[in-house]
Amino acid sequence: MQHRTTYQLSLLWTVTFLMPIFGDGNTISARCHSTCLSAHVTSSALHTNGTGSYSLLEECSSNINCSSCIYPCKKSHKSLDTCKAKCQTQMEAVSAPDICVASCNFIKFIKNAKIGVCPSTFGGFAEACVNECEDDQGCNGEKKCCDNGCGRTCQVPNIRKKDYPSRVERRWATITENEDGDSATVRWRAVPNLTDSGFVLYAVQAKNLSQTRSQVSWYDVGVTEETEISVPLQVGRNYEFRIASVNENGTLGYFRPTAEFCLSREPERPSPPFSIETGPVQVINEKIHMNLHWSPPRYSDLPISRYRVFYSERRAVTPSIIAVKEHRLDVPGSETTCVLPDLLPGMKYYVQVKAIARYHDNRLSSDRESTYIFTPTPASNDGTGGKLTQTYVHPEVTAPSGKMPGPPGDLTHDQPYWDNGTLKVRLRWQKPKGFEAIIERFTIHWEATVCSSERGQQEGEATSLETSFELYGLSFDCTYEVWVRPVYDHGWGPFDATIQILTPPCTEVVYRGPRPTCPTPIPDIPSAPINMSYSYVIGETVSANFTWAPPTRSQYPLSGYRIYWAQVKPSSGLPEAALPTIEREEFTSTLLRETRRWYVIRNLTAGARYVVKLQALSSIGGGANVAVDIQTPDIKIQVNPVLPSEKAQTPDSNLNQEPVSPQENCAAERLVGSFLFLTILSILCTCHVIQR
């Protein structure tokens, strides 16, 4: 039975982050593999009667020396020192660190070295006593940096083609769509290895021709000893492929790419955006400019080309017939934030966001996600804006009484824990009041919105007959959004209950049974965020609005930010100038997307001392912290007067309200104006940022 071993170096949707660093990652990885296999087969031939197993890569992984040799070949490394450090720390994968380090040195060498050998004789400028280059990378094209005995000049090398395997020609390659409809298999004819220079491996690259011109580039698919490889593809995109044959000497390069290929399935329209949030506001000429942020669709076959944002006023009192003007904004698909300009202070707005993707000449639009927002008065400028979230109501879903069940109540979660090889957390909730008898089950959906590592992005769905459920298969150090929706005999309920869950890092998790195996992070990568500042917002409670700029140094792409804070106990006895030491478990923390540059910490205690820390996250873990020691203003917060609560409204329910008399309007306006004047105050602080 044939065993196929394929090393997938990068998936289609993570190419930007996994592109190898050492030159053409696929061919260098294949050359490194071939060199290790040569040493492995040579050493093992004494014990296998001169015959190796069919799958050499599989055999290599079971050999201590060979598996240590190929460990650096399978991963991308930013520098030689990083590669060597992993050889010393990844003890489970590397049993022979010296052999692993030797592979790091070999990869460094072949990264800078071009194929061929320097000519044995020189003439003309080639023998000049000048240092035209330091290594092969300093020479154009195929020229190598050659030592002529007096200097170093760029020369055309002598290439013996018989030292390298033949190229895989375009006419030898075929592409077949797989049964799953989401991938294709690329096949080609094997090339003979006419020399004794190691085994022939194949490096495969693909190009997504449907991206914008600036994004179109070749990305690595995998390295294999077989003559075929399965490639995950995205619907509605055109692709080209190319294959290079490689041995331990190197490769003659890629041949011409294949003809364009596209999956047969038609793309579907994207799901709607979600989690619409308001951010800091600015007051300019007595008009409110409010930041709006949302999360991209959970599912989309095609890249989002743009978002369209709709917003309109919702006045507390309106005549029975009124023309409501709807404003529109178009936002590029690469962005998930915008500024709603020129809003009226103290006003309620109905906001909707939809995603748009393009397929040929067609436009695929999602449903609209909606929410209510409230603008502050100019005096408050609290940087938050109120928010009333209302889930879209499906008109066809009603209970027998004509009323619809609300969301599940009292949604909470227990402490996450590690058990039997997976990270779990138990959810608990109550049935909607008044509808306990007709609720049959609940659907649960969870999704990782932000993770400290790219490996954590995932989602899941489940159904529960009970009012509790244990989420499973979670990733460490992630923020999860969870939705629970009731299902009854007439269909799905229209309202979700939502909750946010922050899973702990691997090193801090509570576990039952065996302890999880945690990776060894590289400290202080990336560096700390810079230009961190804050301002206080005094209203019904004290809030602090923090802003920052990205770190100046990061060897890996940023995956997010972690901000955490804790109140300093009055009994600490530390002087004002000292940054107190607080245990990690005392901090409240949250994870933010890599695009966020602000965060509002709400409900702080007036006149209290807090420590706030911020760190940038990358695919290998958290970096250095920037720490702020703050003292909230010692101001008495007045208790709000009791005002009539606003009834929950559907988007157009306020059009049929009974009119209110002018006297009642004036009295209400005077009451609200007096309340706002007495209770809302903005204090801007110049803060001292302590780098830690």
TrEMBL record:
Leader peptide range in chain numbering: 1-23
Protein name from the UniProt record: Anosmin-1
Keyword match Zinc-finger: no
SUPFAM superfamilies listed in its UniProt record: Elafin-like, Fibronectin type III
Translocase among keywords: no
PANTHER family (UniProt xref): ANOSMIN, ANOSMIN-1
Alphabetized Gene3D superfamilies for the sequence: Elafin-like (4.10.75.10), Immunoglobulins (2.60.40.10)
Family annotation (CDD domains): FN3 (cd00063), WAP (cd00199)
Example of a GO cellular component annotation carried by this entry: extracellular region
Record domain WAP: where: 111-158
Superkingdom of origin: Eukaryota
Alphabetized GO MF terms: peptidase inhibitor activity
Domain Fibronectin type-III: 164-267, 272-380, 407-506, 528-635
UniProt KW keywords: Signal
